[in-house]
Amino acid sequence: MFSKDEIRPDRNSIWAFIEEFPEESSDITDARKAARELGVQPVSAHTADLLRVLAASTHAQNILEVGTGTGVSTLALLQGMEPGSAMTTLDIDNSRLQRARLAIQNSSHGRKHRVRTICGDAAEVLPRLSQGSYDLAFVDTSVESAEYSVLSCLSLIKSGGLLIMHNALNQGLVAQPTARDPQTVVHRRLLQEIQECTHDVFVSLVHSNLGLYLVYKR
Ligand SMILES: C[S@@+](CC[C@H](N)C(=O)[O-])C[C@H]1O[C@@H](n2cnc3c(N)ncnc32)[C@H](O)[C@@H]1O
Hints:
Elements: H1 11-20, H2 26-38, H3 45-57, E1 62-66, H4 72-80, E2 86-91, H5 94-106, H6 108-111, E3 114-119, H7 122-125, E4 134-139, H8 143-156, E5 157-165, H9 182-196, E6 201-206, E7 212-217
Parallel strand pairs: 1-2, 1-4, 2-3, 4-5
Antiparallel strand pairs: 5-7, 6-7
Helix pairs in contact: 2-4, 2-5, 3-4, 8-9
Bound molecules: S-adenosylmethionine (SAM).
């Protein structure tokens, strides 16, 4: 028997257990297959579970997603939302969006909500959306468009809303002090700048998959 002092947590096995724990629905498994075919990196199973819990526990009525891909994260969010609530999701790539549309149509959860899918560049679409009208925004776009999308979504969510940024650590590079490529520098600065607005936000960096940045707008 180990005493408490002798237990050395093995971070790799903890992490593997957490990632293998979720039991995904068949619609999400199908969307993952489509992601593999089209070369998209969807959220991990653990992140999908977390998104569903966050959508449900915040009782989000109006969700915005930037970076639909083939719909893995979209379906997870829809599963957590109350029937009748609304989701707007956008992606610049029409072939991915088409697969996501199919996945949403074929999912029982998709049919319970009002889902608007928009094909376009975040830089062109986000300025057309209503400021302060979303309860939750999920940003999972390219590293190049992440900063713009995160800052725009901060204005698009209501006070009391939640912003979730995926891949907040830019494939882990933000955590490596020697990594100084332009995108990593931008990500590092963005996390810091938002954290410093303490009168406006509460933040938490969550160790999930590629790093999730949770920003609660006060
Ligand atoms: C990591 S994938 C999203 C995966 C998706 N959230 C999921 O879990 O299945 C990122 C997506 O962002 C889209 N994207 C990249 N740049 C964009 C931009 N400027 N505006 C809108 N979408 C963009 C890509 O086409 C890609 O599908």
